[in-house]
Amino acid sequence: MAMASVFYLVVFLSLSISVTAQTPTNASASLTTACDKTPSPYLCVKHLLNFNESQTADIHLLTGLMVRAAAQYAKETAEQVYRERHGTFFGTEYEDCLNDCSESLEDAVAQLDDTTKAVDVRDFGDVEAWVGAAAADTTTCNESCKGANGVPQIKQLSDRNTEFAKLCEIIVTLAKLDVQGQH
Question: Is residue 14 assigned to a domain?
């Protein structure tokens, strides 16, 4: 009986710790409320807090800011790939992977530039199409790197691509909320 009580106490404490760790404490209530409706609330808040205006933004502005955040994240990833391309040589599969990823990330950033225009006019169909294309670019990058999986930097690149894909899901969700709010 005592063992069961200890078990439930441990489960309760671990759940409360993980829930409180999920939302940064300096986010506004409206930002948190919007991000809670996305598939990755923590990432949503984390990336939007990079913009001061996110604290008072409506859903439309939050969508545009998330596009900027995702584009910045893709640019940072592209910069890492560039540094790797000009750094240690791990073989032709690794070099091919980095070359393909460099192109894919450049394409993803371009897709997000087009997404910005679609967000501005609240064209959800175009937002979904452009963001889908950007996310597909990182999938292409991951696919091209399968032969270089033994290289530690590939795991980091794959993790960044996974986070980018989640940012893309957040953009689509926020855009959908924005369009729904207009009707």
Answer: no
Is the residue at 8 inside a domain? no
Work out the end-to-end distance of the chain between its first and last CA atoms, rounded to an integer number of angstroms. Answer: 55
The pTM of the full predicted model, rounded to 2 decimals, is 0.82
Strands (E) located in the chain: none
| pLDDT recorded at residue 97 | 85
Write out the residue range of the structural domain in which residue 122 sits: 29-181
Distances in Å between the Cα of 165 and the Cα atoms of 58, 129, 170, 171 are 23, 14, 9, 10
Each residue's pLDDT tens digit, 10-38: 333 333 333 333 444 456 778 999 999 99
Q: How far apart are CA 47 and CA 70, in angstroms?
A: 8
Question: At CA 163, angle to CA 65 and CA 161, rounded to 5?
Answer: 115
Nearest to 157 by CA among 97, 109, 108: 97
- 159-182: average pLDDT: 94
CATH of the domain at 93: 1.20.140.40
Contact assessment for residue 22 and residue 41, using Cβ atoms and an 8 Å cutoff: yes
